[in-house]
Amino acid sequence: MAQVKIVTDSSAHLPDMALVAEYGIEVIPLLVRVGSQVYPERINQTDEALLRRMLQDPKSVTVDAPALNQVQALFARLGQVTDSVICIHGSGALHDTGEIVRRAAAGFMGRQRIVVLDTLTTSIGLGLIVEAAARAAATGASQAEIVRIVRGMIPHIYALFFSDSLEYLEAWGRLGPAQTMLGTMLDLKPLSMMEDGDFVPIEKVRSYARAVDKLHDFIIEFSRIEQLYLVQHGFETEAAQLLERLELTFPRREFPVIDYSPSLAVHVGPRALGVMVYEGVR
What residues contact residue 50 under an 8 Å CB cut-off, 6+ apart? Predict the structure, then answer.
């Protein structure tokens, strides 16, 4: 039986980029649009020039899903080596890639068994799921077994982000214009939690120090943490402060600090600090 092939998209952050080649993970690039310019996204890559443009024009920023024919061509190529494919994508609330992939997969029904899964997460949360699926596929796990692994991980991944601006939440309808105007006048900064795959504003704070407090409080509420990542851009100092506090609470743990993709910056802004927690499956 041919090995199950794993497909994901560029919104994933993989803990180890070598896994892409080692396990033959297929990565579909997303397109980030700022005004009239379109930037193809690369996995685990941050485009500084693109993020600077986002700062100048936050309300013209969008994420475009791949073209249908691009995904169809991918499935046709994979069909030459396997009849079993699992597509593991970032939350459908953040981009439409999963829907495009489902439409493409419908044309291969009867020839290939293609399963498309919405992980309700992004960045390293998505990357951890993809990594687990790819490792299982490499050991010869069946499609059904890998799907069970993925679905078992999804409810145990959590994220809380602090953003430097309210405008990106407003651009996607998560805040109203009046809330954004008032919050900006008061210099308030939003905290957003991922719930059902979308960023939901839960609180606003007046200072970066208070935002770090909130992130720390969020983390220490977990009774079990298998993996935790700090995800940031533009907040290196605050990330270091949070790590110092975590060293006191978790003295024998090391928590990586990673950057995030342009497709995530579309939603949280080019300056943000967040934590993503995988508590593990009991």
Answer: 32, 34, 39, 262, 265
- Structural domain range at position 163: 156-278
CB 166 within 8 A of CB 267: no
Q: Which one-letter DSSP state was computed for residue 12? A: B
pTM attached to this predicted model: 0.92
Measure CA of the first residue to CA of the last residue in the chain; give whole Å.
31
Handedness of CA 134, 136, 137, 138 (dihedral sign): positive
Q: Residue 265, exposed/middle/buried by CB under 10 A (0-12, 13-18, 19+)?
A: buried
Q: What average pLDDT values come out for the chain (282 residues) when binned by 10 residues?
A: 91 90 94 85 76 76 91 96 96 94 95 96 97 96 98 98 74 58 61 91 87 96 96 95 95 93 89 95 77
List strands edge to edge, sheet with 5-9.
26-28, 5-9, 84-89, 113-118
Q: How many CB atoms lie within 10 A of CB 40?
A: 13
Domain co-membership, 151 together with 188: no
Tell me, yes or no, whether 117 and 255 share the same domain.
no
